[in-house]
Design goal:
By secondary structure, the protein is mainly alpha-helical. It has one domain. Helix content is about 90%, strand content about 0%. The chain has helices at about 1-20, 20-50, 50-85, 85-115, 120-145. The radius of gyration is 19 Å and the shape is globular.
Amino acid sequence: MLCINLKNKVIKFIIYFQEIDLLVLITAAILSFMIFFPLVVATSIFNVLSEKQASTFLRTFFPKYYLYGFCLSILGVITSMLKDEMVSIIFFIFMSTTFVFLRQILTPMINKSKDEIKETKFNKLHKLSVLINFFQIVSCIILLLIYLK
């Protein structure tokens, strides 16, 4: 009897999981890690580490952060293409492109301006990265609203 109940629960879970749209999961994954960083990681870093340690950590962290976002976004592009979801394709291409831009172009510029003690340039570039992250987060929220309508 216990075995039958367990089997029925597993079957119900599998059926439920199949009904969950993969695009919702991908979008939620991107949104969750992007919100987790400023709320938890960033506040912890600057409370626990010295400025030099924090800088070293962030220079190691951000390329991985952006690569993770890029991989999820590409997965979103591929899934959207398979489902022929044009709006999703556009949003995921935007996110994947901006993750590459942030990782390959903007982050090295930010690091260089910090190394050269060009505070005004650093602040402008950092604000640009925050603005891009904001638009990525808004994109995820829009997609989730579309998916969960």
